[in-house]
Task: inverse folding
């Protein structure tokens, strides 16, 4: 075997073990008994120890030095392995295991605190997580910016400076659009009961309509919806609120976007570094374009309205135009995952500033709730009414996912670019969506983005798909045009 072949054989075993670790995480969030939390933490730490040892194996450096890539895909494999190896060797094994153990148990602590509406029950554990993440960041940054070193794990090449500058450019237009929309007449609200079994049946049908392959996945319930896995086992979750079916339906479509990215990657890359999404920003571009530009388009919501009439009977909406306005209702709500497209990125900007301050040591954990509530009131004009609607709403910090939040807005920006290119190349898109047919759109995304996996760098895969370098302008133009039409601005 050549050095490249030996390296890839070793890497496939590592990737397989990482998938097993991911399956343990899925189990923990869906069906694991509550009493198993402490044991699961030990299990996660044990497998992380094995993975860290493999990722830092000294033979990897030797193989990388000797390996000769035969083609573009092999060169990409070596690039990703080299990056991961360099990163892993900077982090002590004891720290990697401690983080895996703590973040596993911290998720349970967060869930209990959220249910009890007691921030104080979560803050000591959060402080431990942040201390370990700052230790990890220091090891990775080696004198550089701590937050940048963490963000690089989710969006290679991005920095807080460039993301912050993009946010500064976006904020004025978002605020102007919000003020204009909120000054217009608001659409009515749903006032109907939508039973859980019927919601879940429609959620499955929506997943199928967007191309989700149930022979290689499944749909379950979780406190915080997520997608898990890659290759040929990619699972999604949703949640149900019986007075708000859109919570379930659009969470499902969102997670299907993530799942279809992983399921759409070329099978030749299975269980290799290239065989998974290239970054969380690109990943989020798929979930957001599925959910918003496709799923919330007036064309698709017209089909969805007819489906809901068949399934739920008369639910008090006069027609597809009113339904589209209700689906796209703009309101300053508390919950990020339920936020409309106008407000969503303002949620992300707030979290970005808070978590960067936490990692840099500019904000103490003890002051976090007050800082959250003050910032939320300043940005949204509403006082936080409960911890579950405030600091405790997101699972990310309990998982140690610092540097993850900005990729949500970056994903929106990428989705805006992809949507502009998609409409130029699929002129009959609205007619197809009006029939509930997403195949042309999802097929275009699979061909242009998904099948490549990690073959190209994040910005490169978007630029290649669109034919231009990604910027925030297409997203902001799309939002202005869409909500001007819906609200008669």
Result:
């Amino acid at each position: 075997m050549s050095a490249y072949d030996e390296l890839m054989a070793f890497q496939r075993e590592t990737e397989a073990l990482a998938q097993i670790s991911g399956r343990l995480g899925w189990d923990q969030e869906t069906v694991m008994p509550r009493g198993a939390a402490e044991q699961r933490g030990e299990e996660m730490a044990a497998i992380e120890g094995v993975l860290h040892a493999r990722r830092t194996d000294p033979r990897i450096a030797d193989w990388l030095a000797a390996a000769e890539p035969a083609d573009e895909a092999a060169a990409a494999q070596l690039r990703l392995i080299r990056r991961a190896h360099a990163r892993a060797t900077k982090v002590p094994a004891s720290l990697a295991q401690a983080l895996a153990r703590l973040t596993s148990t911290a998720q349970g602590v967060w869930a209990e605190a959220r249910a009890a509406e007691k921030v104080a029950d979560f803050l000591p554990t959060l402080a431990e997580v942040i201390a370990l993440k700052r230790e990890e960041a220091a090891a990775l940054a080696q004198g550089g910016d701590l937050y940048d070193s963490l963000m690089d794990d989710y969006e290679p090449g991005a920095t807080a400076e460039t993301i912050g500058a993009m946010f500064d450019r976006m904020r004025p237009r978002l605020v102007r659009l919000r003020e204009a929309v909120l000054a217009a007449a608001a659409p009515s609200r749903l006032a109907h009961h939508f039973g859980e079994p019927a919601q879940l049946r429609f959620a499955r049908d929506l997943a199928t309509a967007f191309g989700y392959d149930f022979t290689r996945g499944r749909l379950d319930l979780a406190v915080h919806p997520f997608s898990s896995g890659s290759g040929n086992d990619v699972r999604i979750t949703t949640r149900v609120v019986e007075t708000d079916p859109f919570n379930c339906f659009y969470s499902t479509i969102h997670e299907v976007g993530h799942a279809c990215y992983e399921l759409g990657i070329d099978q030749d890359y299975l269980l290799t570094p290239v065989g998974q999404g290239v970054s969380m920003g690109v990943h989020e571009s798929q979930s957001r374009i599925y959910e918003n530009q496709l799923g919330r388009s007036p064309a698709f919501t017209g089909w969805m309205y007819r489906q809901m009439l068949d399934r739920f009977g008369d639910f008090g909406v006069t027609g597809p135009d009113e339904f589209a306005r209700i689906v796209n209702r703009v309101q300053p709500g508390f919950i990020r995952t339920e936020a409309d497209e106008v407000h969503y990125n303002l949620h992300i900007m707030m979290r970005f500033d808070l978590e960067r301050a936490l990692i840099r040591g500019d904000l103490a954990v003890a002051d976090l709730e007050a800082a959250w509530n003050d910032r939320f009131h300043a940005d949204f004009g509403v006082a936080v009414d409960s911890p579950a609607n405030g600091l405790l709403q997101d699972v990310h910090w309990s998982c140690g996912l610092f540097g993850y939040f900005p990729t949500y807005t970056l994903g929106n920006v990428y989705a805006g670019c992809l949507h502009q290119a998609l409409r130029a190349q699929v002129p009959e898109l609205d007619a197809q969506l009006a029939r509930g047919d997403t195949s042309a759109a999802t097929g275009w995304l699979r061909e242009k983005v998904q099948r490549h996996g990690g073959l190209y760098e994040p910005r490169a895969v978007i630029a290649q798909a669109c034919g231009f370098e990604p910027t925030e302008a297409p997203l902001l133009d799309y939002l202005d045009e869409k909500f001007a039409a819906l609200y008669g601005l």
About this structure: The beta strands are 219-221, 227-228, 235-238.
